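ARCHIVE CARD
SHELF: 3
SLOT: left
DATA:
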Amino acid sequence: MLPASDRLSVALLTREYPPEVYGGAGVHVEYLARELAGLVDVTVHAWGEPRPGASPPVVHYEAWGELAGPEPYRPALQAMSIDLLMAARADADVLHSHTWYANLAGHLGGLVHEIPHVATVHSLEPLRPWKAEQLGGGYAVSCFCERTGLEGADAIIAVSNAMRRDILATYPAIDPERVVTISNGIDTDEFRCDPDAGRLARLGIDAEAPSVVFVGRITRQKGLPHLLAAARLFEPGVELVLCAGSPDTPELALEVSEQVEELRASGRSVVWIEEMLPRPDLIQVVSNAGVFACPSVYEPLGIVNLEAMACERPVVATAVGGIPEVVEDEVTGLLVPIELRTDGSGEPLDPDGFARDFAERVNRLLVDPPEAERFGLAGRERAVAEFSWRAIAERVVEVYRSVL
């Protein structure tokens, strides 16, 4: 074991890293790497193009070219090819992997270099059955990579208490003593309310209309079709703003597109922004929302809710996964109960009832601006007090030292 005074070297293994970030795990790694750099020596091992001059330094990876092809399982095999390359190249005192895309790399790298592997779990493949629609047989491969990586990890970090419970229920071979909860965080200096509306017109948003804002990928997990169903019941004159891209499948993209067109045909205003917005634009869009909506059917924690709270916006979100650990019902927003089907689809048992309940809570805040304002201010206070990235990084370093 290294003395507490020695500076550790850590290799972060990840699919996403700026500028190629499309989900909460990528945001997590970006800010964690920045804070860890002040505590340990960090190198990031990430998919994608070279990132010259990045700090911390980044080693980039691309999939084996001979795996090209149209098959739905191809992305899973490409991920495994990168895992092999990462395992060969990533060497440090500790390997720290994020998501199934890199968990196997952490496991194999730990074996070949004889060093500890720590894994952060942002979601669990067996709890996302809709991915079979996206990956075909590759879904079995992604589940294999995750299970192997997690069951062999020296320590596992869950991003919420709900996530920790799910890990132990899904993978009973994992010793509970190896699993700790360290939540996601938020940079409240960067994410703060920007009431200026100067960027909205360029994005096609009516700054004068009350808005409901959604931010997320177009995947079954994020529940966008349910929000679109709820939007039929929103108060008149409300503009729905969707910052939504990267659809899992062409079929899901078509489904969402058809719902959007139906809303527009009924006279509802919908602004759909499919490209990844620069962060200042996104902060201004969220800051000017009447309500921030998170209709997820599966969410280990939900960084987007923290971002909205830091921008002083009230949140209406599904009471699922780790969301209740972030959004305090009747204090920083409103939670919508949900009962999920038991057939493995991950869908609501009563989708129409869920949409009605979601719309009811959104409308309650839209017609009561003082209550929405109270929730927004309380959300900002909670984000600042409980979700500091520096405190999170210090706890992660404690986990590193515990496995040496």
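SLOT: right
DATA:
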Amino acid sequence: MEKKQIDLKWPLVGNAHITEFLGKSIANSRVSSTYIFNGPDNLGKTTLANYFAQVLLCERRENDSITPCGVCSSCHGFLNSPEDLELDSVNSDFHILRKEKDKKKISVEQVRNFIRKLNLSSFSGGYKIGIIKHADALSTEAANALLKTLEEPKKEVVVILVTQNSEVLPQTIISRSQLLNFRLVKTDLIYDYLVNNYGVSRGEAKKFSRLALGRPALALKFFEDIEFRENYENRVNLFLGFLDQDINGRLQAIEEAIGKKTQGQESVQIVKRTLEVWQGVIRDFLLLFYNHNNIIQHYQVEENGRQNFSAADLLYWQNLCREGESNLQNNVNPKLVLENIAINI
């Protein structure tokens, strides 16, 4: 029996084991009813989930083909719609569920509405696809409602749960799903991706590929989104500025960074991202302390050079940041979380 050739030219950098598996599943007509795309953010999980849906919903795809035609009305909708848009208008057999703005959890009402849409008859007579973004934010009630659907899957209905941490999902959901673990991508692959696909200069590609820490979508965002990159660099510089400021200067800097009008989950997310950046900066100072300059993430740390603090100081600061993340989870005021770190550095 002739072995079917698997095309790996899917929109994913690295993680060839994922595209190989999905390609074989489509080519051999063994598509599962539920998938979990698990791994850190900015690896391309949602992009791949959308492309997988595009392949399955393509109106002119041959049965054993693993790539979409790119010209039918369904493909045209996918190719011309922003990824973060609610894509019901793209294809009536494709639905995305995401956490509502300023909410901590995906509610049971959202999941029930999502299930209702998937239970409707397919418009094209083929697959119906549902993607749940940030599935680790499912409330207990929402997860239980979803489980009832997964226990008795309908033919040609595919649900994809995209998550950073599959371990927070109920084991009963994991056991009924095909779990695909996405891994961080090697820096040189990200470098080549930026240079060859987007014409990024070699200097910028080196900087962005190191800055992204194995996350190609993040590296591309650093290149394409100037405002995003500036916000990131401001968080780096906020921490570095602490090293030369007294307590009053640090508190003032935090006030300016967060903004008086920022509230609710928006404030929580800003502080969460800030803590992630700060931990990366502290990690770089540890690497610098032990002379591992070649794997430092932030060029600003290299420019800042070796400082007058010990490894014990740096580890203490790391613990402060981790404690801050825990406090955020326990609903401590986000501004107070940063102020506590600034005071104790």
